[in-house]
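Table S2 (text version). Query chain:
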Amino acid sequence: MITKFLISEAAKKYNISRATLIYYDNINLLNPSYNHENGYRYYTYKDLEKLELILTLKESGLHLSDIKSFLDRPSHEESIHLLNRQNYKINQKIQELKKLQIILEKRTSLLSEYEKIEFYNDIRLNYYPEISVCKVDLNYNSKNPYEDATNRLKETLDASITSYGSITSKYGLCIDIEQLYNSDFNRYKYVFDYLSQHIDIGDILKLPGSYYVRCIHKGPYNMAHTSFHKLLNYINLHHYTITGDAFLVPLVDLWATTSEDDYKSELLIPVEIE
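Corresponding structure-token output:
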């Protein structure tokens, strides 16, 4: 006795619609192979095995026309080639999803930390140990220096994202000390991202441990000069010596707010204290 399935039963078994099976029948991709004397057409187990193969190949990204061509002229060699090709595509998708997962997990962690950040209103002096950053210099011969640099940094970090994880908007900015002296606060030297672990990619820079005069800037990055002025005045007042480049580190950005007026960033200038 042949075990047979009505179209509704086959559809339910594989969680697809009756319309899908009717379409497969109309294009001769999968036809019910058992015709009963009552006029009904039924699927057999062999038909369902073929359906399972069709659904697997379709889920892997293969078009129905390619699946039909493959089923019409099956061969051992063609099967291996097809399955290897689709397996390669699936692995690519898996890597893309892993990248997305890492980015979202890292962003979720950062968003959770926003509530713990102390958004102080004064100017402070603190010592920070050596840190490593991955950086990309800004090219001012480019039409969009900042956008080009951040895109290049993102591409560099994406190369190792499965072990590190890139953040597309939260890149720090470095200002050349000479630009500070010349009151040119919006001509940045490079964009960077902190490295929580050593990875052999891009241009890695080790920033030595140092005292930093720091403050919180509220508002768009292009208005940070107002806060940098306050830091410079504070440094002059206390007779500190600037020892290196200044930094703008985003704390609250477009992942946490929709308005640049609500952005918060920390500005830091390394100094030597007497």
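Notes on Table S2: The first strand starts at residue 4 and ends at 5. The chain has two domains: 4-74, 116-272.
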